[in-house]
Amino acid sequence: MPLYEYVCRECSNRFEALVLGSNRPACPGCRSENLEKLFSTFAVGTGDGRAARAAEAPSQSAGPCGSCGDPRGPGSCAID
Prior knowledge:
This protein is mainly β. It is built from one helix and three strands, in the order E-E-E-H.
């Protein structure tokens, strides 16, 4: 879906708008069409919230491996 982020140049309201076809978005606060389109990234999800819950939940196997901050990644400190 074409969901875009904008900031209104009139009232500084930041919002998202679903833009279909040749429709022009307007600020939901002041109805101005003087908008700046912001750079935004897209996200991919499962749709059932499992990915979000997994990202928020602490790891069950949290231990010393991966906690040292070695830039080569988890388990790399054992390579030395």
